[in-house]
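@channel sequence for tomorrow's demo:
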Amino acid sequence: MPKIIVSRNSHFYNIFPTGKTTYIGRGPGNDVVLTDSSVSRKHARIDLTEKGYYLIDEGSKNGTFIGDRAIHSHPLTHGTSFQIQDFRLTFVNDLGVEDQIQTGGATISKQYAESWDEATCTGFIRPMEQIWDTGEKLTRLIEIVMDLHAASSDVDIGALVLNAFIELTGAKRGMLARLHKTAGPIITHMQGFDPNGKLPESIRSVLTDVLDRDTSVVEMCNDKEIIKKMPFTSEKVLCMPLLKGSETIGYLYLDHSDADNIFADIDYNMVLAATGYIAEALIEERGPTRGLGRDEQQLARELERKGIIARSKKTLKVFKDTLSIAHYNVAVLIYGETGSGKEVIARYIHENSGRKGKFIACNCSAIAGALVESELFGHEKGAFTGAVQQKPGLLELADQGTIFLDEIGDMPMEQQSKLLRVLQEQEVWRVGGRAAVKIDVRVISATHKDIKNNRDQLGFRDDLYYRLANVEITAPPLRDRAEDIAPLSRLILKDLNARHLNGEKNLSISSKALRLLEAYDWPGNIRELRNTLFQVATRCDGDIIERQHLKGLLNVFEGASQKSKLPIVPLIDVERQHIIMAMEFTSWNKSAAAKLLKIDRNRLNRRIKKLGIQEPAS
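structure tokens (generated this afternoon):
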């Protein structure tokens, strides 16, 4: 089914499916809802006709545009982009992505989606019959603990714990209970037991003894009287108190009723190791925005396995968005400051695109204007002085894969027109060549310049921009993702230790030094962070980078000195100026200004009088 990929102000916005008729507008009844007052309630629609898909403007106030041209009706083909105010919409009719299921921005293959169990809050549950070795169990235990810390407020912690440990240990039954101060133990979750039936007295007795003694079943096996009460041998029961400090808050009970199954020592030790985390998670009050949600935590772990650090919500959103559009064969334009990781994002899109060819990166600003054509398109032997042999261009080398055009805003105008032709025809002409070479290349480009709003000033072709920017994504600068600085610093130091320090040092960094790094603006972003740590690493005598090692670097404090020089003005002056701006924007219409400021008109009148604001004489 065709899709509509929407970007807004150079940020990914959403993906919408299309039908026989797809309505686009501000109103909630539309299939594609664009929440902006400048978009008409019924702005446009997409119709499936005998001749294909057509985009039709519904008589909107501000128009629907393809390029700079307002349209009434226009045919849509794969990759066609159109503009509605700040929204850029791209029509995608790529049937190769239908074997993927999109779940909240994360892509899950159908083979796993069928076994998704929402109650367990885990995405990929293995069958209980599967044999786990010790390494797998320990890895899964770590994941469970991380899930507990990452779980959002709407996650049932008890269900997560019980299902995860039944899965991990291979138990047939289990229950989780909370200890009430007056009512005693209250079973909150159970599996494998009859919820309407009564627990056997033998199990009740064991649970009572566990709570009374604050010890596990295994430790109670030295008591012969206790052993007589147990429904099974100790190898078939795991029951442990959940302790928060010295306080018992409940218990976790697991058992086997099958003679063929027993708990191993590793099962006991894992449950014992996790009881403190379980207790903490059960009693912790979780705010709706505290920490990262489970999906975010899972994505962060997946990214880290690929060497990508993402701890901040802004960074995670970027990678979640790129995952949403990776399988669609559309051009992507990435905005971001120098050193902010635009190429990392581009590589991630390629790796998740399913394309079989290579990822080829080209820095357009690093190639002399006269050589751009030869580098991108290739040349034949003898095409010019020095062309001693045939050479395929980067676009040709990226066939069936992805080419990343970094700093595309620096490409000379002459080469822009030739690149546009390549993108339109999907073929290249080598310099001096007599025949075109067909290619299948996905183009991802990047720039630190505002191409979208300053094409004339930058000398960038409109038609090339529309070809390159089917989807726009913005990489956040490092100063807006302080949560990433500490793990990034540790990763950089790990790389320095392995590749540059010849094993002479094993550098780490103190928490105070990390706080200093987090307080700095990093105008050079990750590249500047790496350079700073490299300088410190070569000067540091010990194995720990301390705060004083960073103080010696002048550039570390440039941001702080600049901040201290910013003028601090009285708040009343800020309010006065803000109201004047709103009044000027609305041509001194108080009702419109009050609506813009989201305050009552009478209140705006009072503030205007108090602040002495007067409309200038016309």
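heads up for whoever presents: DSSP finds 23 helices and 28 strands in the chain.
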